[in-house]
Amino acid sequence: MTHIAVLGSTNMDLVAYVAKAPQRGETVTGREFRTIPGGKGANQAVAAAHAGSDVSMIGAVGADAFGSQLRTTLEHSGVDTDHLRTTEGPSGTAHIVVDDEGGNEIVVIPGANGTVDHLAPGDEALIAGADALLLQLEIPLAAVLAGAEAARRHGVRTILTPSPVQSLPPELLASIDLLVPNEHEAAALTGLTDPRDAATALLDQVPEVVVTLGAAGSLYASRGAEPFTVPAPRVTAVDSTGAGDTFVGTLAVALAEGRPMRAALTWASTAASMSVQRPGASSSMPYRSEIDAQAASNTRHTS
Ligand code: ATP
C-alpha cells in the first residue's frame, strides 16, 4: 500500500447562493446556504485516499464546531488525522457568494491554517515514511518550505500546487520534484501565457512540471524530453470545484504506485473529469474502483 502525506490547509467553505451578489452597503436575501468542507490540503488528501492510498494529513483545525466537522470529514474518507493539530481559535473559513451567473466572491480567513508555520514534533518522521508529500500555498510559506526540505532530506517525492499563486522563493523550488500549476498559475509564475512556454521556463527551477488545462487536459514537461499533452475525457461539467485537487491527489497515488507519467496523467484526468460531473469538492471525488471502471470504458471508446 502506498502512503501519501499532505501538509496543508483545511477550510470550511460557507457558501451563500444568491440571484445577484450585493453591492457595497446593500443587503440581499439569498436562496440557499451550504457549509462545505474544503481547503486545498484536505481536498487533495481526500482525493488520494479515495484513489486507494493510505493518507496522513498534517495541518491544523480550530477548537470550534467547524474543526470537529473538518476532522470527521477527513476521517470518514479514511485520512489519518493524528498529525492534524487542534489550535485555539477558529478554523479556517472561506466565505463565498455564488450568483446565478456562476460568478463568485470569496473571502478566506486562514484561522487555524495560519498557525501552521512550522513542522511539529513527529511530522518529519511521518514525511520520511511517505512515498510523496503534497504541498499547496494555503498555509504559511515557512511550513511549506520546512516540509519540502524535510521530504528532500529523506528522498521523498514532493509535489507542489502553487495556489493561491505567489512568487516562490528559489530555496523552496530547489526542494520540489513536481510542480502542478493550472494555466493561470503557470502564466503568473513565468509571465508567459502559452502553457508550453511557461512549463519550459519553469524547468529552470524544477525537474518536472504538469500544467493543468481544464477541459483541454494537461501538459507534461521534464528536463531533456519533449513536452506532451494528455487530453481530458470529454464530459459535461456541472461543477469544476476541486477538479485540480482531485487531479493532483490521484496523480500522486499513481506515481507512488510506480506508474509511468503518461499512464498516471491519464488516470488522474479520468478521476478529475468524473469530479467535474458531480457537485461539490471532496464529496465529488471518485473512488478507485469507479476510476478504474471509467478508465476501462474510456479505453474501449477510444480504441
Ligand atoms: P479547480 O480550481 O476548478 O479545482 P484547477 O484550475 O486547479 O481546477 P483545471 O486545469 O481546471 O485545474 O482542472 C484540473 C484537471 O481536471 C484538468 O487537467 C482535467 O484533467 C480535469 N478537468 C477540468 N475541467 C474539466 C472538464 N470540463 N472536462 C474534463 N476534465 C476536466
Automatic annotation (TrEMBL):
Localisation per UniProt entry: Cytoplasm
Active site residues of this protein: 245 (proton acceptor)
The reaction(s) this protein catalyses: D-ribose + ATP = D-ribose 5-phosphate + ADP + H(+)
Domain of life: Bacteria
Pathway: Carbohydrate metabolism; D-ribose degradation; D-ribose 5-phosphate from beta-D-ribopyranose: step 2/2
GO molecular function: ribokinase activity
Keywords on record: ATP-binding, Carbohydrate metabolism, Cytoplasm, Kinase, Magnesium, Metal-binding, Nucleotide-binding, Potassium, Transferase
Annotated InterPro entries: PfkB_dom, Ribo/fructo_kinase, Ribokinase, Ribokinase-like
Residue stretches making up the Carbohydrate kinase PfkB domain: 1-286
Similarity comment text for this entry: Belongs to the carbohydrate kinase PfkB family. Ribokinase subfamily.
Protein name per Swiss-Prot or TrEMBL: Ribokinase
Annotated source species: Streptomyces mirabilis
